[in-house]
Design brief:
With 388 residues, the protein is of the alpha/beta class. The chain has two domains: 17-265, Type I PLP-dependent aspartate aminotransferase-like (Major domain) (Aspartate Aminotransferase, domain 2), CATH 3.40.640; 267-376, Aspartate Aminotransferase, domain 1. Helix content is 38%, strand content 14%. It is built from eleven helices and 13 strands. Strands 2-8-7-6-5-3-4 form a seven-stranded mixed sheet, with helices on both faces. A four-stranded antiparallel sheet has the order 9-10-13-12, with helices on one face. Strands 1-11 form a two-stranded parallel ribbon. Helix 8 (268-286) packs parallel to helix 11 (360-376). The longest helix has 21 residues, at 40-60.
């Protein structure tokens, strides 16, 4: 039985063939440790890393030295959040944050950091009012997701950035679900963009980015080998080495470069339009189904649809779909605050997230399967290669 993948909000799959080829080439040709020697293998690896760093700088409107490679978006967010906040500081986050923001902030509250939550309202105007009120408390940092990983709702980050600039507040954006789908740049006014390499940028897992405008410099939370200033016990004091301790993931970075090249070649707007169309097919096919509940409060969305079927807990529904040959994620999506805001605790929702490699035919198959589940509360007939 063929399994159809609709969990691209977790990580895009499949990857463009060029990504696998870039990883293979890096392993075969760029096997040296970048920045850890003057020999040809090290220099070749360093050149490949710098090439991808330049790509990311161009994509996000940054100076090349302010692009930091990380393991994932969570790693990038921790570097920024924990690197900037100290006891006595105040932070503001949205009520739709992923645990990669909520957990570091919660941990910091045990160390004397104060945190406020700005509620995400039914409209962008209401959300902005709540952020405006929260910023009056004088926070050092505001952290907000660019788009919810649960519902796909797009946040008014450019307007929030303007509020932060007017009040001298550092603005950190979690771009995990938006980068590669929406045009996001430091020119929009944010100070840090943190994102995953393995989602909308089509890179391998184990890759991420922390991109800065250079106005705020985080203190290190990790120290170690950087290849520069090796004769000093003090951590290298300049970017990007300041935040890049240890050997870089050269093969993953090469794959990330190929992913960003794929994005540039195909076109972000074209990808977004296609994925939005698949979401509309999904929603239109199920909006009148018995017991089908859609979670789409807001004005703009990235290609994510969160839903439930009455009487079937989300984890159970995801299992039924998996047994029928569809991969969707059910549960809390590592986003307790978002589900608390939506009122979907304790079971969460099921999340549909297509990619540019998804097909309309496969979406229709999923819709038909879900219609049967809605009607009977039981599993639909398993799909087969012939039915696809």
């Amino acid at each position: 039985m063929r399994n159809i993948y609709f969990d691209n909000a977790a990580t895009t799959f499949p990857k463009p063939p060029s990504v696998a080829e870039a990883v293979k080439t890096a392993i075969e040709r760029f096997g040296g440790n970048p920045g850890r020697g003057g020999h040809a293998f090290s220099q070749n690896a360093a050149a490949k890393v710098f090439e991808v760093r330049e790509q990311a700088a161009k994509l996000f409107g940054a100076e090349v030295e302010n692009v930091v490679f990380t393991q994932n978006c969570t790693h990038a967010l921790n570097l920024a959040i924990k690197g900037l906040l100290r006891s006595g500081d105040r932070a503001v986050i949205s009520s739709m944050e992923h645990n990669s923001v909520a957990r570091p902030i919660y941990a910091l509250t045990k160390q004397g950091v104060r945190a406020d939550v700005a509620m995400v309202g039914r409209s962008d105007e209401e959300t902005l009012k709540n952020f405006r009120d929260a910023i009056k408390s004088g926070p050092k940092c505001v952290i907000c997701t660019a788009a919810s990983n649960v519902t796909g709702r797009v946040m008014p980050i450019r307007e929030i950035a303007k509020l932060c600039r007017e009040n001298g507040v550092c603005f950190i954006v979690d771009g995990a679900q938006a980068c590669g789908v929406l045009p996001i740049s430091l020119r929009d006014g944010m100070n840090f963009i943190c994102t995953a390499g393995h989602k909308g940028l089509y890179g391998p897992t184990g890759t991420g980015l922390l991109v800065s405008d250079g106005k705020f410099t985080p203190k290190t939370i990790i120290e170690g080998g950087t290849g520069a200033t090796s004769g000093e016990l003090e951590q290298t004091g300049f970017m990007p080495e300041l935040l890049e301790s240890g050997t870089l993931n050269t093969a993953g970075i090469a794959g990330l470069g190929a992913g960003m090249k794929y994005l540039e070649t195909l076109g972000m707007a074209k990808i977004r339009a296609y994925e939005d169309e698949l979401c509309e097919i999904f929603i239109d096919g199920l909006k009148n189904a018995d017991g089908f509940k859609l979670y789409r409060r807001g004005e703009r969305f990235v290609p994510i649809v969160s839903f439930n079927v009455e009487g079937i807990p989300a984890p159970r529904l995801a299992t039924l779909l998996s047994d029928a040959g569809f991969s969707l994620r059910g549960g809390l999506h590592c986003a307790f605050l978002a589900h608390k805001t939506l009122g979907t605790l304790p079971d969460g929702t099921v999340r549909f997230s297509p990619s540019v490699f998804s097909s309309e035919k496969d979406v229709v198959l999923l819709v038909n399967n879900l219609k049967k589940i809605c009607k009977t509360g039981s599993q639909a007939i398993e799909i087969s290669e012939e039915s696809c």
